[in-house]
UniProtKB/TrEMBL annotation:
Family in the record: Belongs to the ATP-dependent AMP-binding enzyme family.
Name of the molecule in the record: 3-methylmercaptopropionyl-CoA ligase
Lineage: superkingdom: Bacteria
Domain named AMP-dependent synthetase/ligase: residues: 26-400
Matches recorded under SUPFAM superfamilies: Acetyl-CoA synthetase-like
GO molecular function: ligase activity
Gene that produces this protein: dmdB
Gene3D superfamilies: 3.30.300.30, N-terminal domain of ligase-like
EC class name: ligase
One Pfam family cited in the UniProt record for this chain: AMP-binding
Organism per entry: Pseudomonas extremaustralis
Amino acid sequence: MLGQMIKKPLLISGLIEHAVRFHGDTDVISVETTGGIERTHWEKIGINARRLASTLGKLGVEPGDRCGTIAWNNRRHLEIYFGVSGGGMVCHTLNPRLAPETLVYVINHAKDKILFVDRTFLPLVANLAPKLETVRRVVVLGPRDAEVGAMLEGLMFYDELLEAGDEAFKWPELDEMTASSLCYTSGTTGHPKGVVYSHRSTVLHSLVGCGPDAINIAARDTVMPVVPMFHVNAWGVPYIAAMQGARLVLPGPQLDGPSLAQLIDTEQVTLALGVPTIWMGLLAALRDGSATAASMKRTIVGGSALPPSMIAAFQDEFGIELIHAWGMTETSPLGTLNQLKSKHVGMDSAQLVELRKGQGRPPYGVELRIVGEDNMPLANDGLTQGRLQIRGHWIVDTYFGMDAPALTPDGWFDTGDIASLDAEGYLVIKDRAKDVIKSGGEWIASVELENIAIAHPGIANAAVIAAQHEKWDERPVVVAVKSPGSELDAAGLLAWFDGKVPAWQKPDAAFFVDALPVSGTGKVLKKELREIYGAVLTGNPASCEA
Ligand code: ADP
């Protein structure tokens, strides 16, 4: 016997129509690419999304076609999220920080028909244009502008498209399994791979993601996704904000600490989300005293390991709770969030610090396990380390354009991370499998060593990488950025590890740099560091100063 309830597909158009109907006058605030702040509200976003959807067919785009975006977090990009997906096309967010040849690969691989481009990225697109095989139209996000129009032949202007659109457009009743958006992994090894989200997976991810033990977004919140909309759909926040009718602040191109701090104060942001490097900048700005961030109660931090010293600094100095989360492009991205249980309330602070430095536990909808080299599950005792695998409603099955699923024979996605899990699912990421330092048959996790280095007051940022070693195969080497005015030297930094880790895990050498190389998504490029420092313990460390 089947249940006898209304069967209604889970669709992204339903999210925006909910926001229009019940939260129509709630603000959406957008820092514009050309400067200035634009204020609008959910009703207008919905109207513009419908107008956009109504024009796509006239541009020769068919259901299922990919529409690329190269844009900051701003109002027009938000409308494209809803207009393109709601209209039955696939919103393909592109990371402008990828190398040009990678961007060309990704656009051609996805067979993007249209590109929606912020003015900032027009020179980039003009450069790539001769190599783009499928793109028929490039639409600039803004009003007609003669100077911009001269930059590339045949440019169209977003605002003109909308003027010609139909605000009474009726959203198609799609199958909920229809593809809604596409995001490529950054492809640190080999070509990037595309992950195709569905309407169903996106709506389920939003339903769970808004909950109090997940991102915790209510209608009363003012949410600022600093995480780019080209990075796993800004962690799903645009959809969740519409579902909940939250005030939304889209910070545009200025992501430095002082700009963000000021925006938090002027717009009274209650919740922000981003990678740890962004919050390092914010911390420095708050310490300068130019802003207070008094309205901000919490931030969700993920994408790479959050140093515990940052958790304490934000909490103790500014009363802001940092909630550590883990996920990846293939997981939509919510995999775990570090939210407490009732039994943790009242824990002593040392225990709490220990618990909070991990990545948290999975919400309903995803399952986790760790496995050994033989793919057999390992103990969930909080100690044993293994390869982290995941499955669930918003986890990738098959990469775009591939025939075979990306799963183990028993249906799990292998994340490439090395982790431990405790009996309640609390996850601690030790390292990426490819970054683990294999010293004399033992593994040394770089994340813990980095956390120790960053906790030194004279250190602003640090990465620990494997350098080849004649006797031990690999040994850890720390590459660090000093805090302004710090006079720490390599010996001092190495001595800082004494007593904090077993002696054999201590890095063998330390180097200082002005900045660490980071990827388009703000993650430290360890591969590049290995190329520079990988031979310092064996060959001639000519270019490095120990
Ligand atoms: P890529 O960095 O390859 O583009 P993603 O952006 O999808 O891919 O990043 C996913 C990876 O980032 C995870 O597999 C994990 O290694 C790392 N990561 C994400 N969040 C965290 C976290 N909170 N702590 C440690 N590592 C994290």
